[in-house]
Amino acid sequence: MIQVFACGLCTCGLIIGSAALLAAPGQTYPGQPTRNDVWVQNRSKAEAVPVIVQNGDGDPLVRVQLAGLPAVTLIPGTVVQAHVLRQAWEYKEMMVPIGQSAIGPLNAAGLEGWEPIAPPAQGPDGMRWVLKRLR
Length: 135
Hints:
single chain; alpha+beta; four-stranded antiparallel beta sheet; 2 helices
């Protein structure tokens, strides 16, 4: 009876291991990086998401596929010139006094394009927030 149970347990282990290998095709071993595909789907103009495609120096070309209305048509083999730009950020600190809620000041800063980049640091006068926004 124990041998039958052990044999069944081994069979289940082989099936689960095989399924794990089939679930990650193209990987030669677990943890190996996979292709980095990004899918952005906008259902209306109000959901438009700006996308910046960047490629580092010496990296292979980045393939971009555009779809949707209005249609974008490129002649096959067309090379689109692109410039690699470094994103410029602006930073500031904001102090929230002890006993005051941070919600109001953070909402006000958010309306100006600021967003927190780290958890607040506790100081003797209150909480110090570090914010950033696009330049």
